[in-house]
Specification:
The complex is a heterodimer of chains A (423) and B (337). Chain A folds into two domains: 114 residues, Periplasmic binding protein-like II (D-Maltodextrin-Binding Protein, domain 2), CATH 3.40.190; 232 residues, no CATH class. Helix content of chain A is 67%, strand content 7%. In chain A, the strands form two sheets. Chain A has a four-stranded mixed β-sheet with strand order 2-1-3-4, sandwiched between helices. A two-stranded antiparallel ribbon of chain A has the order 5-6. Chain B has 337 residues and is an alpha/beta fold. Chain B has two domains: 179 residues, 3-Layer(aba) Sandwich (Rossmann fold); 79 residues, Alpha-Beta Plaits (2-Layer Sandwich). A six-stranded mixed β-sheet of chain B has the order 6-7-8-3-9-10, with helices on both faces. Chain B has a four-stranded antiparallel β-sheet with strand order 2-1-4-5, with helices on one face. The longest helix of chain B has 16 residues. Chain B is elongated and about 75 Å long. Chain B starts with 20 loop residues before the first helix and ends with a helix. The N terminus of chain B is likely disordered. The chains are: A alpha/beta (423), B alpha/beta (337). At the A-B interface, helix 1 and helix 8 of A face strand 6 and helix 3 of B.
Chain lengths: 423, 337
């Protein structure tokens, strides 16, 4: 039996790994994911540049303090951001002054204008008018400078010393420490969440993608009429199993390649070489990596089997779409339920959800990235998962046996049940 | 022209059964006088109220080319699929070399289904090696055999091409190679000539005849009778799920030919009808067939013809499969009515 299954696995694996599509996706997915992480950070850091901002100070006494506060912020932040302020003369007619400066902005003599209303500091909202309002770094400096200046003015008016108030109201922040199973505390400022979310997405995408590969593979064998040639010597169940295992092996290969790439990037010196010393890749505990692989395998075997059944029952992908959609929903539910798990990873609802085989691969893994899950629960989820895989293989195996030889009319749910009885 | 590869000696012989060959013969003899490599007993398949195959029984004699014939929808493919256990019969049994066919023993059969395809993106040689390994041939051996067969089928230069680059006829040849790669003692080919041009048809026929000489038994299923007329030595004619004619083709021909003579000359069919010892006159196109009463000697007919005038043609009528088929189906219909 196994040498035949091996022959099927071998074919599925080699034929897929040899395709350009495999290598393109292997290279593009990390590039894409990396891009999603690096580009926003890079964009955020890229706030530098020379700006010339005109100040229209209708209040008459805030132009100076705002410039001083901005200079202090720029000096503190050590950014490559330079702001040159031009205090525009304001005559008796505020509206005309405003219009004059606006002309300058429009003719690119200024990058923007900062309007400080006459009602400051008691009330009123300063405005920044510019063609480009997406220079976030500049905006944040201007906003803080205006606020610092106005608040200092209010404090002084109330008889308080702004410096003293600044010292007294300094925020202390909150240092987040993740408490591990052995009582070890590790610093965690959101990268824990990002990591959980990222890994869960990878499980979701991989299970979905490789599951659909299984379905397409089965459909291909049906439409190309190859299936009867094969099942003359290979039992339908062996063919199904070989196909699922072969395609799963392709997925694992992709993970291993990515793993090596990650190791190479995080190796000492590699980062500097690539000029990414600033990029910090979160360290992933080896045990979690192991469970990532385990839950991918379990999830893929379960969903891959269901997708194989759908492929066997229908003739074309279009016909299969409705049933395929139902299964995809089961894959999406965990993404929706994620907030619940994040809030109370060890709450009763979270525990129950993560033990449901449809959700286990994602939700149990998510819980494990968040808290230390009792070993008994992990074991139970794995056992339930395995039992479900065997059950799915048993049911789908029957549908598969009948379905792969069926052509023509699109089967209904009742037909599928009849096939179950027939086989 | 195809030079067939020698088939013996066979590694698979030992696998054909645990008992010795002589004992197996005895066992088969005990059941039937024919040395049957394949035996079907009461094979039945129903789909709802429709009976696809109805208690079908026949023996395929070892070393024969056996024609499983019948019109479209007669149940040929369903029968073969049951032999191959691709679908399971509702009743009846199939024996290979005297033992019931199970999932292991069916692999000793080389099966070319009617619905046959190939993985379009695979390279030809890789594909054949894949088919070989699923049939238990080690991959290096499968590669060797497949290369040799590709050479013999003039496909040697295509070994590294993808299946989708081949013409339909070439793909047919590749499928056939996949069927015989594990050197089966019994071949079951479902409509093997469909899609083949006359040259490839000839090539396949020569191959099958050569294989029979090597001791391979071939079961051919087809509804295109002229294609297999020269090949088959045994036939089973199926009509509407039931066998209506089974046996050695020579016997069948003698039965349907009977005391029938094909004549031509200076006389008409009406003239012949008047002769006392003529029981029936058939016109088969331009040919005149004269059926004599059973104890009439041919020389009496010849003498009668010479009295009528010149005789241009005189010979025993050997019915071809098509004649037999049509008459048998008609008789079956009358019988049912």
């Amino acid at each position: 039996m196994w040498h035949r299954i091996y022959a099927i696995i071998r074919r599925e694996y080699l034929e897929r790994v040899r395709t350009k599509a495999f290598w393109i996706s292997t290279i593009l997915v990390p590039v894409f994911l990396g891009g999603m992480m690096i580009i926003p950070a890079w964009l955020a850091a890229r706030g530098g540049g020379q700006f010339k901002v005109g100040i229209v100070d209708l209040s008459g006494h805030f132009a100076g303090p705002v410039q001083a506060a901005a200079a202090k912020l720029l000096a503190d932040q050590n950014e490559k951001l330079h702001i040159t302020f031009v205090v525009e003369p304001v005559g008796a007619d505020a509206a005309r002054a405003r219009e004059a400066v606006k002309q300058k902005v429009q003719h690119h003599e200024l990058d923007g204008m900062l309007i400080l209303p006459a009602t400051l500091p008691s009330k009123g909202k300063p405005e920044y008018v510019a063609p480009n309002v997406a220079a976030f770094k500049l905006l944040s400096v201007l906003e803080r400078a205006v606020n610092d200046a106005v608040i200092a003015s209010r404090l002084t008016a109330a008889g308080l010393d702004p410096k003293l108030v600044g010292r007294l109201t300094k925020r202390v922040g909150l240092k987040t420490m993740k408490l591990g199973a052995e009582g070890k505390e590790t610093r965690d400022e959101g990268q824990g969440f990002l990591l959980s979310y990222g890994f869960m997405l990878i499980i979701y995408i991989s299970v979905l993608m490789y599951g659909i590969y299984v379905m397409r593979g089965v459909l291909e064998e049906k439409t190309n009429r190859i299936v009867e040639v094969v099942i003359a010597t290979v039992k339908p169940f062996e063919l199904m199993l070989g196909k699922i295992l072969g395609i799963g092996a392709v997925g694992l290969t992709q993970f291993i390649l990515w793993g090596f790439a990650l190791l190479a990037l995080t190796a000492p010196g590699a980062g500097a070489m690539l000029g990414m010393s600033g990029l910090q890749l979160p360290a992933v505990p080896p045990l979690l990596m192991a469970f990532f692989i385990v839950f991918f395998i379990l999830g893929f075997l379960f969903y891959g089997t269901l997708y194989a059944g759908i492929g066997a029952a229908f003739d074309t992908e279009q016909e299969a779409q409705n049933f395929q959609g139902v299964i995809t929903i089961f894959l999406i539910i965990p993404l929706v339920l994620m907030v619940q798990i994040l809030n109370q990873p060890n709450g009763p609802l979270s525990v129950v959800l993560s033990l449901i085989p449809f959700f286990t691969p994602m939700l149990m893994f998510l819980r494990m990235t968040l808290v230390s899950v009792p070993a008994a629960q992990i074991a139970a989820s794995v056992v339930l998962m395995l039992a479900s895989i065997v059950g799915a293989a048993w049911v789908v195996g029957k549908i598969y046996r009948v379905g792969i030889l069926m052509h023509g009319s699109k089967p209904k749910l009742g037909d599928l049940i009849r096939w179950l009885k027939e086989a | 022209m195809v030079q067939p590869i020698a088939f013996g000696p066979h590694r698979d012989d030992a696998a054909l059964g645990t008992m010795s060959r002589s004992r197996r013969r005895e066992k088969i003899k005990g059941v039937s006088p024919v040395d049957a490599i394949l035996r079907l007993e009461g094979l039945t398949k129903r789909y709802g109220n429709h009976v696809a195959v109805d208690e079908l029984s026949f023996d395929v004699p070892r070393g024969s080319i056996f024609g499983l014939l019948g019109p479209n929808g007669a149940g040929k493919t369903t029968t073969i699929r049951m032999v191959m256990r691709i679908i399971l019969p509702d009743a009846g049994k199939v024996f290979l070399d005297g033992d019931p066919v199970d999932d292991d023993r069916r692999r000793l059969i080389g099966y070319l289904p009617e619905e046959r395809g190939l993985y379009r993106k695979m390279k030809i040689l890789d594909h054949l090696v894949f088919l070989g390994t699923t049939r238990g041939v080690p991959s290096h051996e499968a590669r060797k055999r497949a290369s040799a067969w590709l050479e013999r089928f003039d496909l040697g230069t295509w070994a590294d091409h993808k299946v989708e680059d081949l013409s339909k006829g070439m793909q047919q040849k590749v499928q056939l190679i996949g069927t015989i790669l594990h050197r089966p003692r019994l071949l079951i080919l479902d409509e093997p000539f469909s899609g083949l041009d006359p040259i490839n048809t000839r090539q396949l026929k020569d191959l099958l005849i050569a294989m029979r000489e090597e001791g391979v038994t071939v079961v051919l299923s087809t509804h295109v009778l002229p294609q297999v007329d020269e090949l088959c030595d045994h036939i089973c004619l199926i009509n509407r799920a039931r066998p209506i004619l089974v046996g050695a083709l020579d016997d069948v021909r003698a039965r349907y030919g009977g005391n029938t003579w094909e004549v031509a000359g200076a006389f008409t069919a009406a003239d012949l009808q008047k002769l006392a010892f003529v029981s029936a006159v058939h016109k088969l196109g331009e040919r005149i067939l004269v059926e004599l009463t059973p104890d009439t000697a041919p020389r009496e007919l010849l003498a009668g013809l010479l009295q009528l005038g010149n005789v241009e043609t005189f010979g025993r009528f050997v019915p071809d499969l098509e004649n037999i088929f049509i008459r048998a189906v008609e008789e079956d219909r009358r019988h049912v009515a």
